[in-house]
């Protein structure tokens, strides 16, 4: 399946709340955004339907029957699923706010929510997730290129990004300078890089993503 660029995809907003009036009100309000919108009456029903679509923004109530909004956040995190999250609640406390924010909530709004505040939060959350998702796709592409390198090409790449000259690399690997030049040429070709600076940037991107 071809992975679409962010610019080719339409964002989606998920509204999860066990209060039907809240779901309807939020859905009507957020339908004015340039995004698809789907509402669920529980975290469990959302998880059952969620197919990994991104970019996305999740608007979820904090206190619900069954799995709570923070438990939903933590479950998504445990699955490695990232998306912007806007938490809404009628029972805000310092502890719940801190927990929601530590779990990665973009913001927390108290019920009854100001319509403009909710609309702005969902819009900003979706824009942030577009940027995040773009970075994730870029990192995925770089990882695929790294995986295409042979062990020797990877060794040469590691030397290049720390600034080693060809003769230094040849000495470290106990090969000829010509061999290093050949490996170096293939590294640049496979990584689709035009400069050492670009190779360093890609290496740092993958390193930071994995940390």
Structure description:
With 211 residues, the chain is of the alpha/beta class. The chain has 2 domains: 6-136, 3-Layer(aba) Sandwich (Rossmann fold), CATH 3.40.50.2300; 148-210, Arc Repressor Mutant, subunit A (Orthogonal Bundle), CATH 1.10.10.10. Helix content is 56%, strand content 13%. The chain is built from 9 helices and 5 strands. A 5-stranded parallel sheet has the order 2-1-3-4-5, sandwiched between helices. Helix 5 packs across helix 9 and helix 7 (166-173) crosses helix 8 (177-191). The two termini are 28 Å apart. Residues 1-8 have low confidence and may be disordered. Pfam families: GerE, Response_reg. Keywords: DNA-binding, Phosphoprotein, Transcription, Transcription regulation. InterPro entries: CheY-like_superfamily (IPR011006), Sig_transdc_resp-reg_C-effctor (IPR016032), Sig_transdc_resp-reg_receiver (IPR001789), Tscrpt_reg_LuxR_C (IPR000792), WH-like_DNA-bd_sf (IPR036388). One of its GO terms (biological process) is regulation of DNA-templated transcription. Residues 12-126 form the Response regulatory domain.
